[in-house]
Amino acid sequence: MIRIGPAEHLKLANDAFQRALDINPDLSIAHNLYTNFELESLGRAKEAMARLLVRAGSSSDPEIYTGLVIACRFCGLLDASLAADRHARRLDPSVRTSVMYTHFMRGDWERAIESDNEDLKWVTNWTLPILGREQEAIADYRRIGQQRLPRMIVLMMGAASAVLEGKRAEALATLREFTSRPFDPEGVYFMARNFVRLDQHASALDLLERIVQEGFFCFQILLRDPWLDPIRGERRFNAIVARARERSQDAEAEFHRLGGDRVLASI
Asked: For domain 6-263, which CATH number applies: 3.40.50.720, 3.40.50.10210, 1.10.1370.30, 1.25.40.10?
């Protein structure tokens, strides 16, 4: 039996998406699924944004703009992410986007909660402690914890809850297990900030370096998240922010080159 490694699996999946889009370049579901794959597995945020911008210029499909919400956010283009959300909702008022994460990355805590349309209320429960409402988040983690959920989700929620409840040993063990497995870089960001709360600064910085390398370079949240205050003056942290900003500026240049301002003009 021939064994196929992770790298080969990624290549096969990428080839399959490319074939689907070659056959039907207007297939919105393929564009959206490919966007998640590019962002979460390939670290190609700028490339995903560019592909979707080209499609958006000749498409009235809300799913294309839904993909742009997340692709622009990964690139640190938060105003563009919000504009993509407005376009998606104009085309389909019932569409669900990930705009609550964009509000969080902007440091707009109240809007992050108001716009959270997910059943598991990830953004709400990450935001409540920033507003001094830790007990509400703990109670919701306990409620959600009664459900049957995938292991990685259980680990994420378990770590977040244990940190808030002061269960240091449990939180560290859960975080170590989570971070030993592959996961999308935006999700890993929320785990990195838990390490800061546990005074594990080196581990937090390791993860922040990892997520920027893996394609999540939304530098704004690094500057705004109060949970990162304890590491904000460290030289290594400043280097991470500088690298994220550099990658964001590169993506912004591509955004303007492709006429993103025109495509996502205010409505």
From this structure: 1.25.40.10
Please count the other Cβ atoms lying within 10 Å of the Cβ belonging to residue 62: 20
Q: DSSP string covering 136-180, please?
A: HHHHHHHHHTTS---HHHHHHHHHHHHHHTT-HHHHHHHHHHHHT
DSSP one-letter string for 83-138: HHHHHHHHH-TT---SHHHHHHHTT-HHHHHHT---TT-HHHHHHGGGGT-HHHHH
Mean pLDDT for 74-87 is: 97
End-to-end CA separation in angstroms for the chain = 56
**243-259 pLDDT, tens digit each:** 999 999 999 999 999 99
pTM of the predicted model as reported, rounded to 2 decimal places: 0.90
| CB of 78 closer than 8 Å to CB of 244 | no
- The answer to whether residue 2 scores a pLDDT higher than 50 is no
Instruction: Please compute the mean of the pLDDT values over residues 50-59 and round it to a whole number.
Output: 88
SS3 content of the chain, % helix, strand, coil (to 5): 75, 0, 25
Q: Residue 137's Cα: distance from chain center in Å?
A: 20
Distance of CA 144 to the CA centre of its chain: 21
Where are the domains positioned within the chain? 6-263
